[in-house]
Amino acid sequence: MDTTVPSLREMLAQVPDPRKARGQRHPWAALLLLLVVGLLSGANSQRAVARWGHAAPRRWRQCLGFTRPQGPSQPTLQRLLRTVDIGPLEAVLGEWLQQVRAAWRQSAARWLDGIAIDGKTLRGARRLGAAEPHLLSACCQRFGVVLGEVPVPATTNEVGAVGALLDALLLAGETVTFDAEFTQYLVAEHTVRQGGAYLMVVKGNQPTLLADSRSATAWPARQLGTAHRVRLAHGRIEARTLVAAAARDIAWPHARQVLRLHRRFVHKTTGRVLSDETLYAVTSLTPEQASPAALLRLWQAHWTIENRLHWVRDVVFGEDLATIRTAHAPQAFAAFRNLAISLLHLWRGREVTAARQYYAAHPAALFRRLGLAPPGL
Question: How large a percentage of the chain has pLDDT more than 70?
Answer without folding.
Answer: 94
